[in-house]
Amino acid sequence: ETGVTQSPTHLIKTRGQQVTLRCSSQSGHNTVSWYQQALGQGPQFIFQYYREEENGRGNFPPRFSGLQFPNYSSELNVNALELDDSALYLCASSLGISEQFFGPGTRLTVL
Amino acid sequence: AQKVTQAQTEISVVEKEDVTLDCVYETRDTTYYLFWYKQPPSGELVFLIRRNSFDEQNEISGRYSWNFQKSTSSFNFTITASQVVDSAVYFCALNPYGGATNKLIFGTGTLLAVQP
User: Fold this and answer.
1) Which residues are bridge partners to A65 per DSSP?
2) How far apart are CA A106 and CA A12, in angstroms?
3) From its phi and psi, is residue A96 left (phi > 0), alpha (psi between -120 and 50) or beta?
4) Is-contact A61 A79, C-beta < 8 A?
5) Chain B contacts to A (CB-CB under 8 A)
6) Which residues are CB-contacts of B9 (< 8 A; sequence separation ≥ 6)?
7) A13 with A19: CB under 8 angstroms?
8) Which residues of A touch B105 (CB under 8 A)?
9) What is the DSSP letter of B101?
10) Which of A19, A82, B60, B81 is the most buried (most CB within 10 A)?
11) 8 Å CB contact of B104 and A100
């Protein structure tokens, strides 16, 4: 059984650029959630996708958007990057509403 | 308001000591779930336990135990006979709204350092 994987591991961007982060869910899981974790803080919920539809969103602006594909993998897109977007981005997968299993994260640095 | 408070920012113990990590939560929902996750330096969050609001039984898993008390809105985590490998940041999290979504509200975490 393959766990949750994320790519890339690290990424450096400059202000104003756009970025796409990718997540492959654990085998058999149909729900993907994305979290942002700033240094020294707990993760903050961005949004959740269930069967390719957004199903719940946290307090993040519209420039944070996502997709879920038929194989339940997912992308997180962030437009017009700001310095405060520098963080660890975590993806978690689950089977519906249940325990979430997290990937290793993508460390994004915005200069 | 939905909130999780982990008042202990950092705890340092010597190997084999017992340690308790505190978690206090706030929610108006009657149905909710509570979680503990471990985050080692690698960054990946490791699931430890999920408990629903209707199950107040304490749980023990090896050296880990959890004490859930609705009367004080607390869900504390105890590690018995700590080991160096237990060193990590531990997060308590709340899934409110009756579990209608997977949205987890995390505390700020407690950094546990176990010295040999």
Assistant:
1) A77
2) 11
3) left
4) no
5) 4, 35, 37, 42-47, 50, 91, 93, 99-109
6) B108, B110, B111
7) yes
8) 45
9) S
10) A19
11) yes
Omega before A43 cis (within 30°)? no
User: Is beta strand A10-13 parallel, antiparallel or unpaired with respect to A106-110?
Assistant: parallel
Local confidence pLDDT in tens for the 116 residues of chain B? 889 999 999 999 999 999 999 999 999 988 899 999 999 988 889 999 989 888 888 888 899 999 999 999 999 999 999 999 999 999 999 998 766 778 899 999 999 999 99
Q: B-chain residues within 8 Å CB-CB of A101?
A: 47
Number of Cα atoms under 13 Å in the Cβ half of residue B2: 19
Cβ(B7)–Cβ(B23) under 8 Å? Answer: no
What is the biggest distance separating any 2 CA atoms in chain B, rounded to whole angstroms? 43
Task: Measure the CA–CA gap between A65 and A68, rounded to whole angstroms.
Answer: 11
> How many helices (H) does chain A have, and how many strands (E)?
0, 11
